[in-house]
Specification:
Blueprint (H helix, E strand, L loop, with lengths): L13 H5 L3 E2 L6 E2 L5 E12 L4 E11 L3 E5 L9 E4 L7 E3 L21 E5 L7 E5 L3 H12 L7 E5 L13 E5 L3 H9 L1 H8 L6 E7 L13 E3 L19 E7 L2 E7 L49
Antiparallel strand pairs: 1-2, 3-4, 3-9, 4-5, 5-6, 7-8, 8-9, 10-11, 10-13, 12-15, 14-15
Subcellular location: Membrane
Protein name: PH domain-containing protein
Pfam families: PH
């Protein structure tokens, strides 16, 4: 069992609020004028060397340019390390979504996976910074703050190139793509609802909502795409062409069914939990694909042939 430091930082130091001057401890990169501090707090960070590995409490600061830096104690101007999250936001994972990342470290006694934050890099996939928050609520606070420093999250969508072929014998094709300008505008109009739905630690992500055959005048109709919040680590579970290679499952509620993307477990983490598997047994033939708003069509080509996934 471990405990976080309960003493408040004496003054977070003006040098941390506005800029960092100096050299990262343990590396040669020099930096200055990083930006304004958005959030700060104690987190446990995983440290590993040839002879030992441990979780160590450090003071972590998030800046408005998405830089996260960690210090041995508040008030220091030179951090022990840092990472620019916006360089690879798709490699940011929290909670159960961290299972997709290879070699997840063992957690201290009394800690659950829902308290975990992982910061990855696109340039060096083997380099991952692992951190633990005090609670699931604090993870929500951190991901909400980080999201404000990042570009709009992408869309995860069900690709319906051959609606008549969709059924129990074909695995749905799901891909991730940037959000279009119209989708970003729609999110801004419904900002409160979007933030409530995208900054919580969840064990699944909605992909598409499909309605049963209904009169043309019925409203609302389903959607073939949904916003995929930052923190789901989709960079670890997609092919180079953006196709989702992780697990999928359907859920049904009254006159609609929802396709969900699920976090998978990398083979190096199987000692902790078995791999998730997708479920594709729902017959979607009674559901109407016509009239659903085909979001994203204005900017993207849907002609990508990924082949049929037979299972």
């Amino acid at each position: 069992m471990f405990s976080f430091c309960s003493k408040p930082p004496s003054d977070a130091s003006s040098s941390q609020r506005t800029q960092l001057d100096g050299t990262c401890k343990g590396c040669s990169c020099k930096f200055s004028s990083i930006g304004k501090q958005i959030k700060g707090g104690y987190l446990l960070r995983y440290k590993k060397s040839v002879l030992w590995s441990r979780w160590s409490e450090e003071w972590v600061v998030l800046y408005d340019d998405s830089t996260m830096a960690w210090f041995t104690e508040p008030g220091r101007s030179s951090p022990a390390g840092k990472i620019l999250v916006k360089e690879a936001p798709e490699m940011l994972a929290i909670a159960h979504w961290t299972g997709q990342i290879p070699r997840r470290p063992p957690l201290p006694d009394g800690v659950s996976v829902s308290q975990l934050i992982a910061l990855g890099s696109r340039r060096k996939r083997s380099k991952v910074y692992w951190m633990i928050a005090k609670s699931e609520e604090e993870v929500n606070d951190w991901i909400a703050a980080i999201t404000k420093t990042l570009p709009p999250p992408p869309q995860i969508e069900l690709v319906v190139d051959k609606p008549h072929a969709m059924g129990v014998l074909r695995r749905p094709i799901v891909r991730i793509r940037p959000a279009t300008s119209s989708e970003v505008s729609a999110r801004r109009k419904n900002r409160t609802n979007i933030e409530n739905n995208t900054t919580k630690v969840r064990s699944e992500a909605a992909v598409a909502i499909i309605k049963k055959n209904t009169p043309e005048s019925s409203d609302p109709k389903g959607s073939l795409a949904c916003a995929l919040p930052w923190g789901h680590g989709w960079g670890w579970a997609t092919l180079p062409n953006g196709i989702w290679s992780g697990a999928l499952t359907w859920s049904q509620c009254e006159d609609s069914i929802t396709l969900h993307a699920l976090p998978t477990t990398h083979c190096t983490n199987l000692i902790e939990a078995p791999c998730s598997s997708g479920i594709y047994h729902t017959d979607i033939s009674p559901f109407d694909f016509h009239g659903i708003e085909d979001v994203g069509g204005e900017d993207f080509d849907y002609a990508m042939d990924c082949g049929d996934f037979i299972f």
